[in-house]
């Protein structure tokens, strides 16, 4: 019974023992039986204690790795959300700018009502002549100083 009590009491590892175990762990994550015996004899520890140390070290290493991965993914998510918000802001800015330009064009061409903006994103076939006219009128409009001077994305 005295023998089982002495085996169940684990002694604390010294800094040198921990250092040697850590060094061995960097090379071998899994503990082979011959290495376990060698480390046990070299460090003066029971084989079971060496095996448990390796098992615990693998678990801690995995947890740390998962924490690092989580932080990396969290940073990437925050960056993606920030980029999304900026892009949404740019899209809104461009839609507003297009609406203002079309309304200015309608006023410039002496139309009584502003341009219908219901199909701002539409590029149907058969309107090439209108696009050319629009481009020419817009270029003329901008060159005369009527265009928006703000091209910043803010």
TrEMBL record:
Record GO biological process: positive regulation of DNA-templated transcription
Its job: Transcription factor.
Residue ranges constituting the Homeobox domain according to the UniProt record: 4-64
Domain of life: Eukaryota
PANTHER family recorded: HOMEOBOX-LEUCINE ZIPPER PROTEIN, HOMEOBOX-LEUCINE ZIPPER PROTEIN ATHB-52
Coiled coil stretches, renumbered: 77-111
DNA-binding region: 6-65
Subcellular locations according to the entry: Nucleus
Gene Ontology CC, one term: nucleus
Record's protein name: Homeobox-leucine zipper protein
GO molecular function annotation: DNA-binding transcription factor activity, RNA polymerase II-specific; sequence-specific DNA binding
Keywords: Coiled coil, DNA-binding, Homeobox, Nucleus, Transcription, Transcription regulation
Major place of residence: nucleus
Similarity comment text for this entry: Belongs to the HD-ZIP homeobox family. Class I subfamily.
């Amino acid at each position: 019974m005295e023998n089982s009590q002495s085996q169940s009491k684990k002694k604390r590892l010294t800094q040198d023992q921990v250092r040697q175990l850590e060094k061995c762990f960097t090379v071998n994550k899994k503990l082979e039986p011959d290495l376990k015996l060698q480390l046990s004899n070299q460090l003066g520890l029971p084989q079971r204690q060496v095996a448990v140390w390796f098992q615990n070290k693998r678990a801690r290493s995995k947890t740390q790795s998962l924490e690092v991965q989580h932080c990396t993914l969290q940073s990437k998510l925050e960056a993606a959300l920030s980029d999304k918000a900026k892009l949404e802001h740019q899209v809104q800015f461009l839609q507003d700018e297009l609406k203002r330009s079309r309304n200015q064009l309608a006023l410039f061409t002496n139309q009584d009502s502003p341009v219908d903006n219901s199909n701002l994103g539409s590029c149907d076939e058969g309107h090439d002549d209108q696009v050319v006219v629009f481009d020419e009128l817009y270029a003329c409009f901008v060159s005369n100083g009527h265009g928006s001077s703000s091209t910043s994305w803010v």
